[in-house]
Amino acid sequence: MPERRSDPAGILDRPPAAAAEVLAAWCAAQGLPAFRARQLQPYLWQRPLPGWQEATDLPRPLREALDRDWPLGRLELATEQRSVDGTRKFLWRLPDGEAIESVLIPTGERRTLCISSQAGCALGCIFCATGRMGFRRNLTPFEVAGQAREVALRYPAETPTNIVFMGLGEPLLNWPAVDVALTILNHPDGLGIGARHITVSTVGIVPGMAALAARPEQFRLAISLHAADPERRRPLMPIEKKYPLAAVLEAARAFTKRITFEYVMIAEQNDTDRDADHLGRLARKMGALVNLLPLHPGGAPGLTPAPPARIRAFADRLKHQGVEVVVRRSRGLDISAACGQLRVETESRRPRARAPGTVAG
Ligand code: SAH
Ligand code: SF4
User: Fold this and answer.
1) What whole-number distance in Å separates Cα of residue 176 and Cα of residue 357?
2) Residue 262 known to be catalytic
């Protein structure tokens, strides 16, 4: 019987350099020449394979030994939906029955993959569908970075060029796994996506922000602000009590690259001229870009999206203050694929058998 490894982490749960070391040591222990280990490494992330059996340049006994000792992890696809605008939503089923989602959004030459970092989320922002699920568990490094690997395996022509951590979960509350996943996504021996094309979105978990800022690469930071003063923010986002806005903004100063403020437009909660003026002042002070997101009502029963004319007026007011503003278009609305609308609904849906690829209403 093969000896059990004391360290249960899979080969795809490790940063590329660590995975290479593990494979080199394993090859040496098998009495294999060093070139074999170098031959294996690209199949992890650079030219991903679904399984070792597909590595047809390797001798069959080696493939079998690799499948036994260092199997290549997969995310099981539960459902996939495609929007009329080309957006694809993937629901992955994890081995313990949890489920997470990723959304691939094509825009011109760019293909942005929105990935999950946790199953559910503990933070309970009142407008967010994931928040309503509650927290289930943290994802492993492979489960985070593997979302991009799976998309690349399934659609080689649609390999993601950009990553945003805007799916399920709060990435900076799962820092150990997100830390490794960032390395895998960015490193040339990993998926090789430039740090400037990887955005971590957070409500402002101060210790996590410090950890992210301490990394040498310049990953982009998006702060989910949603209100520019604490009194307005508190009822929307319970985290304001633990990490007050002032502390979040202080932590943001450690980022040298320009940051983004995410701002979901909710009627009467945060969409007045006064809100715009507060936000404008803050964005100017921080040199931040502002992303205005129309509220997806799917995430928030009881809240009303700000009307389009209000969003335009709000955006103009910011522009007049010299702030750069983008009003985000909603993508994949017909498949509930927009950020903040992600919520794993399979528990209630499981009994209803559905044909693969059906688009939910
Ligand atoms: N937890 C992190 C990242 C995941 S949420 C964060 O909150 O930043 C990703 C983005 O979707 C956040 O900016 C969040 O505010 C936004 N969002 C949540 N609910 C939404 C909704 N109902 N409509 C539009 N955007 C929403
Ligand atoms: Fe969690 Fe982000 Fe949703 Fe808030 S907006 S509940 S932090 S996923």
Assistant:
1) 34
2) no
Characterize 215-225 residue by residue with b for buried, 16 or more Cβ atoms within 10 angstroms of its Cβ, and e for exposed: eeeebbbbbbb
* pLDDT tens string 290-327: 999 999 877 778 899 999 999 999 999 999 999 999 99
* Percent of residues in the chain assigned helix, strand, coil, to nearest 5: 40, 20, 45
State phi, psi for 330 to the nearest 5 degrees.
Answer: -80, 130
* β-sheet with 220-224: strand ranges across: 76-82, 88-93, 99-107, 110-114, 162-165, 198-202, 220-224, 260-265, 289-294, 325-327
- What pLDDT shows up at residue 341? 58
Q: Burial code of 253-291, b = ≥16 C-beta within 10 A, e = fewer?
A: eebeeebbbbbbbbeebbbbeebbebbbebbeebebebb
Q: How far is the CA of 253 from the centre of ligand 2 (A)?
A: 22
21 catalytically annotated: no
Homologous superfamily in CATH for domain 76-348: Aldolase class I (3.20.20.70)
The helix/strand/coil state of 316 is helix
Reported as a pLDDT band with limits 50, 70 and 90, residue 338 is low
Q: Is residue 205 in contact with ligand 1, taking CB distance under 6 Å?
A: no
Distance of alpha carbon 212 from alpha carbon 294, whole angstroms? 28
Packed helices 245-252 and 273-286: angle between N→C axes, nearest 10 degrees = 30
Tokens of 257: 């690259």
290, two tokens: 């502002």
Angle at 109 between CA 108 and CA 110, to 5 degrees: 90
- Using H for helix, E for strand and C for coil, what is the string for 125-158? CCCCHHHHHCEEEECCHHHHHHHHHHHHHHCHHH
Quick one: how far is CA 102 from the chain centroid?
Answer: 8
- The atom number, within ligand 1, closest to the CA of 298 reads 22
- Residue 9: per-residue pLDDT: 78
Q: How far apart are the first and last CA of the chain?
A: 50
pTM: 0.93
Cα 60 → chain centroid: 36
Distances in Å between the Cα of 198 and the Cα atoms of 126, 162, 255 are 26, 6, 14
Catalytic residue among 27, 98, 101, 125: 101
